[in-house]
Design goal:
mainly alpha
């Protein structure tokens, strides 16, 4: 009796907007509900039941706050009554959440299986270009024709139709390039085979030509030996002529030596039995020797005149060198004075330019600081505007997720903008 009286007293004192009967009615209303796969009506009914349970829970919490605010002496009684009512409501709400989660998982699995199936089809197209280097031109042609006849439809590939078409296109291009390359290789192999046949014929002809050239080379070797022996005589005669008549940079035969050598050369010419080429060389040398003899006689007279002229030229050069040295020193003095004057003028101009630049930089910095202060005020105002943006109230969970994402993005953007503005 005391417990009943206490409960009645509690019910009289703590009055909620809902009672046991109302909660029981809602629980009973949805107790046996099941979601039929792919049935929007039963899914909507479950969502409606969740909404009613949620409303009861919200009303109970709201009333609890109202009662506890008005009278602290009723806090314990209100909390106990709220807990009791929530325990009555929670099983129905949890049941509906569980069957909704089961249905959501089933739908998600169906979607995942569908997407995985489409991706596997796309991968099967990509795998067609594996090991292309080991395939023949006929096999590559067959693969290319297969891809050309493959049709990509939205009914089969859904939202991945673009990826499937791109994969088909790229794979088709890869196989076509491999096919073209294989055809090119086959043609080059045929060309190499034909070239090897042609070269075999050429090698046979070259062998016959080598035999013929060997015979000619033997004849040429015999002739070369004869020419070499003659050339030895030629060189010996030329050396004698150079030593006794023409001379070189180390020795110049005098007039008497040349005159004696000409007598010996004429005696050799008068001897019979020379090769025609040797006879021609001796004739050329006697003519040149007579010219050298005349030149040597004239040169003896010219040398005396040249010695006197060289002495006179030496004296003139010494005087000219002395004058050039004096003139060079004077020019160096003038150049040094001009350089010192130019360096002083440039130093003065640089100093004046630095002063002008410092004045300009000071004015630009003052203007920049003034403009920067105005810009920071504008940016701080923009941060406040971002923080004051009000977001609407929505019912659908998808819309709620979007608003939650937007709220986080706006908050992050506001913090970044304020931090960068502070750094200005």
């Amino acid at each position: 009796m005391d417990a009943i009286a206490k409960e009645e007293k509690t019910l009289e004192v703590v009055k909620f907007n809902v009672n046991d009967a109302q909660i029981a009615a809602v629980v009973a209303k949805y107790a046996d509900i099941e979601i039929i796969p792919d049935d929007a009506v039963t899914y909507k009914t479950v969502m409606k039941g969740l909404s009613e349970h949620r409303n009861i829970r919200i009303d109970i919490e709201a009333k609890k706050k109202e009662l506890t605010k008005d009278a602290m002496r009723y806090v314990c009684e209100v909390r106990d009554e709220a807990k009791r009512l929530q325990e009555l409501n929670e099983p129905g709400e949890q049941y509906l959440k569980a069957i909704r989660a089961t249905e959501d998982d089933r739908v998600d699995k169906i979607e995942k299986d569908r997407v995985d199936g489409i991706k596997e089809k796309i991968l099967s197209i990509e795998r067609l270009d594996y090991s292309l280097s080991s395939k023949s031109a006929e096999e590559l042609e067959a693969l290319h024709i297969l891809l050309q006849n493959t049709r990509i439809t939205e009914e089969e590939y859904g939202e991945f139709v673009g990826d499937a078409m791109a994969t088909l296109h790229n794979t088709s291009i890869t196989i076509k390039e491999s096919w073209d390359y294989r055809v090119k290789q086959d043609k080059e192999a045929e060309a190499r085979k034909a070239e090897e046949t042609r070269l075999a014929v050429i090698r046979k002809e070259q062998a016959a030509e080598a035999t013929r050239l060997a015979k000619i080379a033997a004849e040429q070797a015999t002739e070369q030996k004869r020419k070499e022996a003659l050339n030895v005589l030629f060189e010996a005669q030329k050396d004698w002529f150079k030593k006794h008549i023409k001379g070189d940079s180390f020795q110049t035969p005098d007039v008497d030596t040349v005159d004696t050598a000409i007598i010996k050369l004429q005696s050799a010419i008068d001897t019979t039995g020379h090769e025609p080429a040797m006879s021609l060389l001796l004739d050329e040398q006697i003519i040149e020797a007579r010219g050298i003899l005349i030149f040597r006689k004239q040169q003896a007279n010219i040398d005396q005149e040249q010695e006197a002229l060289a002495k006179e030229r030496k004296e003139i050069k010494e005087k000219q060198d002395a004058f050039d040295t004096k003139l060079k020193k004077e020019q160096e003095r003038r150049d040094r004075e001009a350089l010192e004057e130019k360096m002083a003028r440039e130093a003065k101009e640089r100093a004046e330019a630095e002063v002008r630049k410092a004045i300009v930089r000071k004015g630009e910095e003052e203007a920049r600081q003034k403009a920067l202060k105005t810009d920071k005020e504008k940016l701080y105002a923009l941060v406040n505007d971002l923080n004051d943006i009000g977001l609407p109230t929505v019912q659908a969970k998808e819309a709620g997720a979007i608003l939650l994402w937007l709220s986080e993005e706006l908050d992050g953007l506001s913090k970044i903008l304020r931090q960068r503005t502070d750094d200005l």
